[in-house]
# Entry
Amino acid sequence: MSYKFYLIVPLFSACVVLLVNLLKTKANTLGLIDKVNERSSHKGIVPKLGGLTIFVPFFALTLTLFTLNIDFIITNTPLLIGLLATVALGWVDDRLDLSGKLKFIIQLGIGAYYITFSGNYVDSLYGLFGIYDLNPWVGISLSTITIAFIINAVNLSDGVDGLSASTTLLSLVVFTSLMGKVHHYFILTFIGAGLLINLRYNFSIKKKIFLGDAGSLGLGFILSSLAMEFLKSGNEFHPLPDMNPIFIAILALAYPIADTLRVFVLRVSSGQSPFKADRRHLHHVLLNKGFSHLGTTTFIFFCVGTVFWINRLVAPVMNDYGIILFNLGLILVIHLFVRFRSVQLCKFWSSFSRTVYQPVKKVLSRYAIN
# Structure
């Protein structure tokens, strides 16, 4: 990406901060208030406008660049239109609290639009289970469902301060480093800047705001579209020869995918709808075990990063089936530690955080938490 775009970052960041302060005074009028309920992890009324404060300036910037005929903006119009539709859906959901099934149907439509006009979808399993090329209709159908699933998965992971934003940043860094085109750096730079600013408010006590569904659904669409682009065989974004691209994409989205699948299985096994909201997510379990919001976010972030790094080390000596079993084992170990050794784990993580994250926590304490 041209260095000239980086010069816009301070102006973009100022617009995000300005919009936060402006919309906070109008949050109640706009119906963008998150009230406490049985599933809440917060106390008091909190504005859920973080997503709008990121995406409104982002859309204004992309529209300006579109009118200037900037190539990478015009080429990625399907991504931007799909993102706009998803953010609009999230904004309506923030106001009206739509049903999960209705949102999923609309997300399927958005996913189908993106695939049709961008041409990006999973057309190969790259030898996983002995399968290479997929029938186009099978690939398109699978990809449409996957896009809707990832959007919901990121949305469901937004239950603890900083978790959705931090894991999304990690995913954006992974996809950008693997693909590395102009629009990837553009998204990482400006969406990343907006997320960092929102983290400051998200961890604040007096000025707290949430991403809201407009934010989490929008982030989910961005990550799902990047995953589709990465997995489209003709795009040739496979710089890690020792790892199947399918595994790379899954690991890049490790927490929302693993946690959502786990919760869906628990709900269905108990005779409930997989879309029924509850407090069975791993981040809720950690909170119930005594972890703070910051401790929960850093612990999950650390686990995701560690799992990706370990997979990178073992990939050259394992086949696809071995990697699947290995990761299931890792997930099981983490689950067992959280469930049966929560007291010791909480004490260890608090001690570990004081040793490793103390400088970060001091900065957060001074500029964010208070």
Summary: The CA atoms of residues 289 and 342 lie 6 Å apart. The chain has a mean pLDDT of 87. The radius of gyration is 20 Å. Residues 293-314 form the longest helix (22 residues).
